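Review form for a predicted model. The reviewer records the input and the model, then writes brief findings.
Reviewer: anonymous (R2)
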Amino acid sequence: MNVVNVDLKDELKRFFGFKQFKGEQEKIIQNVFSGRNTFVIMPTGGGKSLCYQLPALVCEGTAIIVSPLIALMKNQVDAMRQVSDSDEIAHFLNSSLTKADILKVKKDIQDGKTKMLYVAPESLTKKENIDFLTSVNISFFAIDEAHCISEWGHDFRPEYRRLREIFEKISNVPIIALTATATPKVQHDIQKNLNMLDADVFQSSFNRDNLFYEIRPKKEVEKQIIRYIKGHTGKSGIIYCLSRKKVEEIAELLQVNGIQALPYHAGLDAASRAKHQDMFLMEDVDVIVATIAFGMGIDKPDVRYVIHHDIPKSLESYYQETGRAGRDGGIGECIAFYSYKDIEKLEKFLQGKPITEQEIGRQLLNEIVSYAETSVCRRKFILHYFGETFDEKLCEEHCDNCKNPREKREGEENVLQLLEAVLLLDETQKSKHYCAYLSGNVTSDIKAYKHDQLPTFGVGKEKDEHFWNAVIRQVTLGGLLYKDVETFGTLKLTDAGNAFIKHPTSFKLLKEHDFSGTDDDDSIIQTGGKEGVFDELLYGQLIDLRKTIGKQMELPPFVIFQEPSLKDMCFQYPITLDELTHIQGVGTGKAQRFGEPFVALIADYVEQHSIERPLDMVVKSLVNKSGLKVQLIQNIDRKLPLEDIAKSQGKNFNDILDEIESIVASGTRVNINYYINSLLDADNQEEIFDYFNGAETEDLITAYHEFDGLYTEEELRLVRIRYMSEVAN
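Model under review:
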């Protein structure tokens, strides 16, 4: 490799404006200059790109940089052009270019103006590109996001595995491979595939001590996200979702709630993606809602939070995506929402894939489940996964588990039971099998191996499989067991594990998280969630006010606001009529007619008691059912039988009555007299109508007993709808 004799620090200052190198950057660059193959494992934000950018600028010839995404190439080329006085300094070659663009790129390379050429692996395989590159002076090859080479990597790309043979056709120059995430297994796989087992490896610590890690149960997740963002107004953040549909929904929901947000996914056209990315970089919007297609190499240092609406498919993905927060060294908060249902969805994606790929996929999923559910220091868990040891005392409450530690109990006996089971079954099984074995669950595998006939089968049956899974996780982190990657996660004893069996010692176990009771619902947020603490004192005052107004207007109290509405006011504290319309069962009409005294009372109450109102008070829902509601009202206007309407919407009769009651309760008049007339004559209707007009309660059972069963519950309910529609609205 021809290297100009230069002072590296001078060049660093000249091109990038930095006075000092970070970490091992200088050693890595010197290694590239010496013509050695180089493998760099450096966490996001550590300055990986500079390790090939500076040598490319200084060396003779053009460096070929293999990059997996068009958006990433564009971003990096733009960045390089800003450090130079010439746009020809860097180009990319991919499917987005016209023939004229390609000719211009090739001419600039031939003229010696281009120091860096970013290419997609697919572009490298084309014969015309190989022929062209063999005719020019190549300084070295760089492979960014090198984990794409490994089948064990989280973004495996088959075309990456052909890179070595293509490089050999083009030029015999050094290779520098770089990645932010590589377990020891992935690292070996990359080096073997690139035929660079002799490479000098530079591995930085995976610890990002400025990041705060937190896992939350997936409950009212959209409301939580809006509350969080409104508490971090003006800060940049990324929200990751699993599907394009969810990305669009969340982006729209944020916009509806006054948050500057844009979607980003592969389904958008290239121009929209580039525009949205640029608007985020230029701070025209605060939030990007994206699939994993966004962010690889996006150089925005001040991302203050990364939120995972859905749990990613691997710990590598999670680590890389969270690594986009706090790249400037400032605080970065990483919040992921977790539910069992998400894991089930991800498991379904694996179906139909080759068996080996399914096995790898399941093992990667098991690791992210273990991470989400563990009660140990999250930083320790991540670093252990990447082959690094970490003392959790150094976390300094930078994860939810260290900030709010779970209770510990003595687990020596349980640990011994587990390790003896692993030994007894000849270290041949995975976690799931041992959990079933210890808890006495006769699964098909247990039966097939006849393990239910062994003397210690069910020795820990007083505990369930969830408990034993937690023990396995904590014992693995404690270094007594390890998962054999080659056999897709079979548990093996370490030397320390064998020693424990011979001489058991104290082992403290942490109580694990329980993630049952999450929403597991695909519908977008509806308002009126029950977060916070219910205010009994305010509720009493609202009940009294409702009674007073009822007397003044000569109306039963329930006509004014029903109890669910009053209760929601005691969580949300609405102090304007607009805010009142976001309360469960309150529409614009009802708010206008009855709302003034209620919001006035609540405003006084909030001031007197110094109440901190929920930040998401004005969360507006995407009314994803609005189309069906409009259709329902139109069908009622056409006087269609309610049974037929229910059938057309795939619902039963009670569901339709629920919908109509909801519409009426929120303040909209609905006239179903045509349907009631077909069931009850005028006198019967008036009798029921008069009853509700003087009743203390709207309760149907009370009404049923009042009439000694003369009318069915359905008839009473229909007339109550008519009464509420005519009197309350």
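Findings: The chain is about 45% helix and 10% strand.
Further findings: Residues 521-531 have pLDDT under 50 and may be disordered.
Recommendation: see findings above.
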